[in-house]
Amino acid sequence: MKEKIQRFDDLKVWKGEIPTWFRYTAGVAGEQFLRALKEHQKIMGVQCPKCERVFVPPRLYCEECMEYTREWVEISGPGYVETYTVLHRDLEDQPLDPPKIVALITWPGVEGGLIHEIREIDPDEMVFGLPVEPVFKKDPRGSITDIEYFRPVE
Ligand SMILES: [Zn+2]
Q: How many CB atoms lie within 10 A of CB 55?
């Protein structure tokens, strides 16, 4: 079949369904991270044995030292809103009421951070540097959404 499309109108569309399935793996470090969320409701990071930097989400190797990061450490204490955005419409362009707040949350002395939803605060009250804590789901499944959302620390 050799057909040269000259005009946009000549494009053909066949509508239908293609049955398929896939399995996503989080990788060695990612799986342990998700397992800690599910089984212990803890956010875990890994520490480089050489430069002692801690990474969240965890990774197998320190990108600076190329050292294998095998030391797991619990990330405790509040995270802080590094930056955030307020979403007023969903992916189908429908209004979100109330609006959703999505933030990059970081921890002092930790490389990286997590992007997650912030609730229990009015968007107008959001500020950079807001201390937040995770609220875990009652029925964890080994997913980043086992953290249901983050909320301001009282
Ligand atoms: Zn390192």
A: 20
Dist CA 80 CA 103 (whole Å): 9
pLDDT band at 1 (very low <50, low <70, confident <90, very high): low
CATH dotted code for 24-152: 2.40.50.140
* Cα 69 to ligand 1 centre (Å): 8
Rounded to the nearest angstrom, the distance between the alpha carbon of 27 and the centre of ligand 1 is 20
Question: What's the pLDDT at 129?
Answer: 97
Residue 59 Cα to chain centre, angstroms: 14
- pTM, to two decimals: 0.81
49 Cα–ligand 1 center, Å: 7
pLDDT per position as a tens digit, 120-138: 999 999 999 999 999 999 9
Query: Ligand 1 being an ion, which residues bring their Cβ within 5 A of it?
Result: 48, 50-51, 62, 64-65
Check whether 3 has a pLDDT greater than 90: no
Among candidate residues 52, 38, 34, 115, the one with its CA nearest the CA of residue 82: 115
Q: Which pLDDT does position 8 carry in this prediction? A: 78
Tell me, in angstroms, the distance from the centre of ligand 1 to residue 80's CA.
23
